[in-house]
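INFO  loader      accepted 1 record
INFO  loader      residues=501
INFO  predictor   begin
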Amino acid sequence: MSAIEKEFIMTPAQQLAADSLKNGITAGDILVLRSGSGMGRTTILEHVHAAIGGGFVGVRQFMEILRERNSDAIEEAFLEMIELSLVHHDTVIVDDLHLITNITEACNYARRYLLDAALTALLGEAGARRKKLVFGVDTDDAPWPVQRRASSFEIGEFTATDYECICRAYLGNDIADRLDYARIHRFAPMLNAYQLKNACAWLMRETTIDTTSFVEYLRSRNMATNVEIQEVAPVTWDDLKGLGDLVRALEAKIALPFENDVLAAEYHLKPKRGVLLAGPPGTGKTTIGRALAHRLKSKFFLIDGTVIAGSGDFYGKVEEVFEAAKMNAPSVIFIDDADVILQGDKEPGFYRYLLTMLDGLESASAERVCVIMTVMDVSSLPQAILRSGRVELWLETRLPDAEARAAIVREKLLLLPPPIGGADVAIVASASRGLTGADLKSVVEDGKLLFAHDKANEKPLREPEAYFLEAIESVRSNRRNYARSKPARFGDIVKIGFNAE
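INFO  predictor   done
INFO  writer      dumping tokens
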């Protein structure tokens, strides 16, 4: 191993990009190295520079030249920086070009597109003088004059081997030998070098470092969710009375591939990509979402009616959710009341975007993202969403049967003092046929109020179950009134939050 190679210890993905770039320089004049933040782009460019020589400039040199000029002379400072280096070198590497172009492409920048003109002239002049330019940019951030002329190279996604290489550099071999990198990569396959370095630095403070502590650190520090878990009602599968078959399907086809690393690795288990939860309002669809939110924590992402279809920033918000879910895969995107959101999508842009995203989940980088959609009326969904391959698991929530209704009522009554808590469960359950779990919750709440009202006004107290029977009739009456009113279709502004059902 040469002195140069010893100085730059790179991961396999970084080494492959470096080798490809060095080969490209022998054939091309304009080259671009793209990567996401923290993937080692500067390390690779420094390695290439050490191997082939030439000039190396970046934001620091740019700022030193700009300091001697008017702060608005961005294009002039940029050109001077590169031209000075080209005087002395046949190859010049320009790192972090996107940091400069981000300024000149801002909507309030007074001289937009001037940098494009300057780059066009610079590239033409460099070509005429047989000079070579290599640019380092964030993914997809190369300016147009460079994009259309350059040969493009990219740092590939890190594998478990890349994770091991980085961790060994910071933890040392003794500690690094203890870690299961396949498990760490499976838990968080989209980490960059900075995140891995930070994890190593933090864990070095601990007395014991193993795979479990590494994963727990990643769960607490590097994962992201758009849901405040502490504000989501604390529910579990036990709260889904009468839906045991549905819970088993969710456990086997979603939770197991997420949580059992050994079996997932042995049998190459992946969660279902598209899941449809269909059923009437109040039958537990959102409760399932709450249970999953607590179960998966930082792996859970929510899109609901608070994100308004057709609004100015709607698609940006949705794209952010999908990108965050892919970065945190394996993960779940829970689209609550998808049929209502689609009804508010007049374009219909969300429908087309959702199809694109669902198809995109077939790619290797997103294959462990599960999209769960809840709907009240399946017939209102576009048929293209339901086609084979997009929805891999179809589950139906339903009205609770007599046994489930009794279990729901019994659980609620256990929290009440006598005599109201001693109501005959069988009578209440039998009288509540056709009601949903949400209805039964309202029945118990209304029954308590009726009982408390009689007690507060010193009226003779009835049999405990009588209050709940009256509440049941009130719920049924409300349903009849709602049916007679024939409400119009939901409008564009729909707010169906995570506490609605």
